[in-house]
Amino acid sequence: MAEPDRAGTTPAGARQARRARPRARAAAASVAAGCVLAGTVAVTVAVVAGPGPGLTGYVSEAGIAGSAYAPTYRIGVFALAAALLLLAVALPAGLRAAAGLLAAGAVCTALSGAVTCSDGCPLPPFETPTVADLVHGGASIAAMAATVLAMLVISFSPVAGPGLRRVARCGAAVALPLAGAVAVGLVTVGRGSLVGGLERVLLAAGVGWGLATATVLGLARRNVPGGSTGRKPSM
């Protein structure tokens, strides 16, 4: 009696495994889109309804200890961290560098949510931060930097499809100069409405890129081999 087919051990099993991988990536992308939306809503609610100083402060001030909306803020940050990790899983296999950067960004995002800053989230060179402030601020900056670098990697990768490259190029074109402006603002003027406003626009650009990328990857489910259209994925 012939042995049952094991996925990947026979030609038929290998074909089945190849069909399953794009579907799994598309499913991860769909969940990532939901995490981006949920995380953005939660953080926005915490920032708008919380006791923070508005545009003159950092977004992270919504999560300081003692704030009634700190749990909401942290849930939102953790959801965004999950979205980055799911996007790393959803990327095509050839984009390992970009996936690694997104995974690193997810870890740093989760760390920034786990370690809260003190009142005002002070950062050098104009303020005296605590160790927690430095950990939180450093993790937040590293998470955004890793995400922008992932955009750049995808932008120039021949492995990425035209849809992914277009989204990445648009995201990088907006996020890269904003990230530079925030960095310059931090060391020249410090905390205030300028840096606070730029930070919010930069975060919005990152959210927009994440949602658009998740959408492109999620829609590939319709085009996987053996799917409803029978066409090859176009990402």
Number of helices: 6
- What composes the largest sheet? none
* Global structural class: mainly alpha
Order of helices and strands: HHHHHH
End-to-end gap? 43 Å
The stretches of 5 or more residues where confidence is low (pLDDT under 50) are 1-8, 224-234
The coarse silhouette is: globular
Strand content: under 5%
Rg from C-alpha positions? 20 Å
Helix content bin: 55-70%
Tell me what the structure shows.
- Helix 1 (11-49) runs antiparallel to helix 2, helix 3 packs antiparallel against helix 4 and helix 4 packs antiparallel against helix 5 (162-188).
- The protein contains six helices and no strands.
- The protein is 68% helix and 0% strand.
- It starts with 10 loop residues before the first helix and ends in a 16-residue tail after the last helix.
- The longest helix has 39 residues, at 11-49.
- 43% of the residues are buried.
- The chain has 235 residues and is an all-alpha fold.
- The model is unreliable at 1-8 and 224-234 (pLDDT under 50).
Defining key terms:
mainly alpha, 0% strand, globular, disordered N terminus
Itemize the secondary structure elements and their pairings.
Elements: H1 11-49, H2 70-90, H3 96-114, H4 131-156, H5 162-188, H6 193-219
Put the structure in a nutshell.
This protein has 235 residues and is mostly helical. The protein has helices at 11-49, 70-90, 96-114, 131-156, 162-188, 193-219.
